């Protein structure tokens, strides 16, 4: 199921290079600060975590929750965006 937010549409249709982690759907300023503490400040860092987990949505979703304190809705939005971005670009 695809999100229909403008943030989601923009994210999955554009290059990721240089985008801050807060450009990723589901990641706002608070979660972005938590991810920064984990060493992830760019959207590409989240992509790396998704790829390291073999593009496994369940594993990545759980990692997002543990690493940032995201709730289920936020983690699902982030996971869906990474899945669609990789489907469109890799």
TrEMBL record:
GO cellular component: condensed chromosome; nucleus
Family annotation (Pfam families): SAM_BAF
Domain of life: Eukaryota
GO molecular function, one term: DNA binding
Hydrolase found in the keyword field: no
Keyword Amino-acid biosynthesis appears in the UniProt entry: no
Protein name as annotated: Barrier-to-autointegration factor 1
């Amino acid at each position: 199921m695809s999100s229909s937010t403008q943030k989601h549409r923009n994210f999955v249709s554009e290059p990721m290079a240089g985008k801050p982690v807060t450009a990723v759907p589901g990641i706002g300023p608070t979660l972005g600060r938590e991810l920064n503490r984990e060493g992830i400040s760019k959207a590409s860092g989240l992509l790396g975590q998704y790829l390291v987990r073999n593009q496994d949505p369940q594993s990545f979703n759980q990692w997002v929750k543990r690493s940032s304190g995201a709730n289920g809705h936020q983690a699902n939005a982030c996971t869906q965006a990474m899945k669609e971005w990789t489907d469109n670009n890799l």
